[in-house]
Amino acid sequence: MSHPIITDLEKRYTTKNYDATQRIPTADLEVIYEALRLSASSINSQPWKFVVIESDEAKQRFHDSFVNKHQFNQKHAKAASHIILFAHKTHYKRDDYAKVVDKGIEDGRTAPADRESAFGGFAFAELNTKADGNTEAWTKAQTYLALGNLLHTLARLGIDSTPLEGVDPEMLSELFKDELAGYKCEVGLAMGYRHQEEDYNATIPKSRLAREQILTVL
Amino acid sequence: MSHPIITDLEKRYTTKNYDATQRIPTADLEVIYEALRLSASSINSQPWKFVVIESDEAKQRFHDSFVNKHQFNQKHAKAASHIILFAHKTHYKRDDYAKVVDKGIEDGRTAPADRESAFGGFAFAELNTKADGNTEAWTKAQTYLALGNLLHTLARLGIDSTPLEGVDPEMLSELFKDELAGYKCEVGLAMGYRHQEEDYNATIPKSRLAREQILTVL
């Protein structure tokens, strides 16, 4: 199939080795941050924090978070241009949704007089809240929407990337305590440019299950 | 910010009323299906089934699935051009990954002699498997990657859409028993074209939290 969207998606792949000398230009970073911000989420809940690791100091901290597990991903901490931690709120509450409602008023989406009725959507958050107040199954899923959106965005920008479920949530919550502010990070994304000689995954064919194995039209 | 990616993401929104007379052209459907197939997933697990509701018969079944709950979404069943059910495998096993490995061999990604070592990534699935064999927290998240990718794809195609967490997994598992084949659907996506007069959400401003509320650069 020949289509610009398919061309973009066919060329993206999981980078296994980065060229540590290359950095993402500022203009592209601005697109990345805005694309993340514009990501869709259930009831527009936006139950996330994105922590971008850019400085050498932050990269050292991310590097150190691999002390206990997933060491195969540690090399990306310093070789990738940037890493984004995708963190979700584990206990999403009415106060969190109030920020969304009030931003809606500020943006002219909701009339101030309709503030109370704008909380109607929050019933959906309640449906996804366990007896102990935990909303993780729901809020974590939303961060994957943002991640899927960003992977597509990066493909369009010609920037390489590596989704990192192989991170250590406990170590991250210690080493990035202030920045995560209680949000939980179970997935990250390394971004940058592939190493031209040392990325075996850049040259072998992409593989996906056949359409008939995963999709049915009724 | 002026950038084609941002323009696409700013124009997409959650459609609240569809024009029932418009249908997505076949060429666009082909792009949609291929974009879904190419979606990224952890260890390339692809733990999903996409059931596309296109015929009147299937739309009636989807319509009927709202008998118990989320009736506000029922109208999309017949007015949207197509609905996709995103279903995940609740108990992802080595046999499932074997299909991925064998397709990798077929696609020339893995040499036949390396078949056994290609199962190395499955350790990651095991890490995400609970004592009772349940992998839902992990596999469901992957379907949101595909959904995030598809929302971006549809924005580029100029096709409107509505994510539907408001579906009834139990009724769907009954009414689409054969097609879901034991996979669980907790989210769908309606797609089509907005009703030009009756979609209030098409004309009010999009709203998102400010960048400083959700993103930190270290």
Automatic annotation (TrEMBL), chains A, B:
Record-level Gene Ontology MF annotations = oxidoreductase activity
Q: Which residues form the Nitroreductase domain?
A: 10-193
Identify the Gene3D superfamilies for this entry.
NADH Oxidase
Q: What is its EC number?
A: 1.6.99.-
Q: Which UniProt keywords apply?
A: NADP, Oxidoreductase
Coiled coil stretches, renumbered? none
Indicate yes or no for the key word Transferase: no
A Pfam family hit: Nitroreductase
Question: Hey, which family's this protein in?
Answer: Belongs to the nitroreductase family.
Descriptive protein name: Major NAD(P)H-flavin oxidoreductase
The scientific name of the source species is Marinomonas aquimarina
